[in-house]
Amino acid sequence: MRKESMRSICAKLAQENMRDDIGKTLRLLDKMKETDPGLEVRFQCGRLKTMLWCTGKNRLDYATFGDAITFDTPYRTNLYSLPFGLFMGFNNHFQSIVLGGLLLTSEKTSDFEWAFTNFVEIMGGKAPVTMLTGTKHRWCRWHVLKNAKDRLGKVYSKHKRFKHDFNKLITDETNIPAFEKKWCELVKKYKLVKNKFLKRLFKHREKWAKPYFIRIFCAGMTSTQRSESANHMLKRYIQRAAPMHLFVAKFNEFQSDSNDQEGKEGFVTNQVNRKMRTGLPIEDHAHTIYTRAMYEKFYNELFESGKYTIKSKIGQDEYVLTDARADMEDAAAYIHVRLQGTDRVTCECGLFEHMGMLCRHALKVLVHLDRQEIPPGNILHRWTKDCVERSLSEESKSSLIVHNDKLRKKMLLDKVFEIANREATLSETAFHQAMDAITGSSSPDPVLANSDYPNILTATFTGQLQPTACPPRTILGGRPPNTGLKS
Ligand SMILES: [Zn+2]
């Protein structure tokens, strides 16, 4: 076949693909809804302005991992020039997870407000504790480091130790006065006081440096790096010039592959036995409750705790620690750890508030006191092995129950089993009441006829106001660019 005819076939196919794009998109969403009753889609209508969609899995995940989320618009589709926004979070395996997708025609404040309001509504009304958005409010640490590499290349090659010292400072230091003091010492030591890049970094330190964020809960997400990497992954799945229905379909594919990855990690967490390394009971406890990824982080802190010594004790429950190798003259080198009974331990470094994990300092004190387990007040449910199952049995169930026929039936069955397995006898009255409720002798068929409920399982989005057309195209007809077919 000649090149020209090949190209004309491709152009025809591409045009065919773009015809009735909105209709195809809506039909695809309806189809998705059939297999995923938890799917929620919201539009800003007329000619499509905004579309937000969250799958049932996104919503379940949000119930467990919605405490800290990021929102960013890292990706732009070419065909309609639509920014694509991603709500993302972190699961208990430290994997980034998608919590919702958003197609926007403009990036006005009012559009974002619409999106956030609807997102929280879809998620059952619970707003996230922390939401990191783009680079408007803070600098991405990953970018800071990348820029530093580019801008300080000469310095790096001239002073071999500088890179090491610089990285150590911005990675390890969590105390504000200590950070500022060490920064000044560092630039003096390497004669970089006048370096423009470093001056600017220091001026804006509140936008990126660790000590200023340490007490803000972020579940370990320190930057928008997560959505950056999502952008890279998305690029592999979706052609920028894809029509909307293909975009949605490919995004589904992307999500389902990510789910497979999660499944694998879950399997490893449950099946693979890890070797204890310190022999301390508290390590064993962490191993029992945490996922593999979380346990590894915990282990690292436990290991690092060995570098600290307890200097003194204030009152009954406060300990003063110091780095065994630190300069004792330095007031910033002292760290205070407080016990709150047996329930909880706090440390001024703020790591627990930041990511829900005990720090090396608190662990030093617990090991010193021969504590066998992590105090209950320091175990964040979201990092445990069974957090999803537990959430499912609690709050997310109630929000999903309206939408999910299978879940309703399963819950009913669970309850029956629970009652049947109770030691206490079932009174005759209770029996008749339950029987009446189930068989429907007191009200007309309450279980089988679900006419009282919106029948979402088979419903389409027909009831909802739907967009009438796609946004105006920025690429007109013909073969879209970047289809990979080189001419
Ligand atoms: Zn600490």
From TrEMBL:
Primary localisation category: nucleus
Name recorded for this polypeptide: Protein FAR1-RELATED SEQUENCE
Homology family: Belongs to the FHY3/FAR1 family.
Keyword Metal-binding set for record: yes
SMART domains: ZnF_PMZ
GO cellular component, one term: nucleus
Its job: Putative transcription activator involved in regulating light control of development.
Key words, A-Z: Metal-binding, Nucleus, Zinc, Zinc-finger
Lineage per the UniProt record: Eukaryota, Viridiplantae, Streptophyta, Embryophyta, Tracheophyta
Subcellular location: Nucleus
Domain SWIM-type per the UniProt entry, residue ranges: 335-370
InterPro entries assigned: FHY3/FAR1, MULE_transposase_dom, Znf_PMZ, Znf_SWIM
Keyword Secreted: no
GO terms, biological process: regulation of DNA-templated transcription
PROSITE patterns in UniProt: ZF_SWIM
A GO term, aspect molecular function: zinc ion binding
